[in-house]
Structure formats: structure tokens, C-alpha cells
Amino acid sequence: VRLPLLEAPAPMPALASAQSSRHWQDMRLRFLVVDDHPVNRLLACNIVQAQWPKAYLCQASHGQEALACLHREPFDLVLMDMVMPEMDGMSVLRELSALDQAPIIVISGAGVMSDVVEALRLGASDYFIKPIADMALLEHSIRRCLEAVKLQRENIRYREELESANRKLEA
Q1: Are 101 and 124 in contact (CB under 8 A)?
Q2: Which of 9, 65, 90, 117 is the S-S candidate for 60 at Cβ 3.0 to 4.6 Å?
Q3: What residues pair up with 58 in beta bridges, in sequence order?
């Protein structure tokens, strides 16, 4: 789903090298945006598109729909609200805690400290309380999660190459 930008957020200050930044902008990253309010989903999509114009964006309006998306296709990052009908974000985190899924950044109007702690305990990578006063912090968190995903993938690739080389040596 590609949405037109309403108002692009200000560019984020360089946090990584220019090469690393270009690397992410050139990739077709996959984001899942989960929120029951269409305006909030649109805002999150606009933030992503401003920084990653080639990104694929999938949207879900509640937890059940998000789980269906996550079981159907892989994502690089999930931006998710906590308070939603049918299935809330905490239930989604509980369902996904045992699985190796994409990082999840929670963006919620529920700022109760026990919810923040529980979400992080269940595997959320970060937690933001709406309204987000400084979008650069959210963008930084997204970049940090994407860097972790990149390192994880490189680690898997290197491990596979090493195992392949070991098999050749043993043969």
C-alpha cells in the first residue's frame, strides 16, 4: 500500500555513515503498521515513506489482522499500537514472544508504566507514548532496529558460509 505524503517529517540528522544510510534507502524494506485509527496508520506510513521511499507498507487495524499478516509474509519492522479492538497489542506481543519475528516498536496512547515494562518484557524493541513530540527519536529507534536486523542477517549468512566451507574441508 503506497500512500501520498501529507507532510514529510524533517530529515533526521545523520546517525550512521552515509554508506549505511544509502544502503537502507536503496533496499525495499517491509514494514507492518498496526493501529485501529486510520489517521495514525497514515501518519506512521508517512514517516516511513519519508525516510525509506522504496519501503513496502502493509497495514492492519487490529491484532488479529496483524498476526495474519505476520504469518503470511515476512517483515523487517512492525510499528504497533497497544489499544485496539478484537485483539490488543499486548496480546499480539504474547503470541509472538516465542517466535523469531521482526522487531516491534510500540506507539501507544497508553502510557501506564506497567504496560511499558510488560511490552518490553514480551519483546517489544521500543515503546513510544502518543503524541510523539520528537519524531527524530522514533526514526532513530527504527534505524537502530533495522541495523539489528541487518546484523542478524549478516550473521546468518556468515554462519552458512562457514558451515559450507567446513563441509568442503571435511569431504
Answers
A1: no
A2: 65
A3: 32
- The CA distance from 79 to 117, in Å, is 17
pTM exceeding 0.85: no
Rounded Cα–Cα distance for residues 96 and 102 (Å): 10
Handedness of CA 94, 98, 99, 105 (dihedral sign): positive
Tens digit of pLDDT per residue, the chain (171 long)?
Answer: 333 333 333 333 343 444 445 555 556 899 999 999 999 999 999 999 999 999 999 999 999 999 999 999 999 999 999 999 889 999 999 998 877 789 999 999 888 899 999 999 999 999 999 988 888 999 999 999 999 999 988 999 999 999 999 999 998
Question: Could you tell me the end-to-end alpha-carbon distance of the chain, in angstroms, rounded to an integer?
Answer: 49
CB-based burial of residue 18 (10 Å sphere; 0-12 exposed, 13-18 middle, 19+ buried)?
A: exposed
Residues near 134 by beta carbon (within 8 Å), at least 6 away in sequence: none
Question: How many CB atoms sit inside 10 A of residue 141's CB?
Answer: 19
Tell me, rounded to whole angstroms, the distance of Cα 71 from its chain centroid: 15
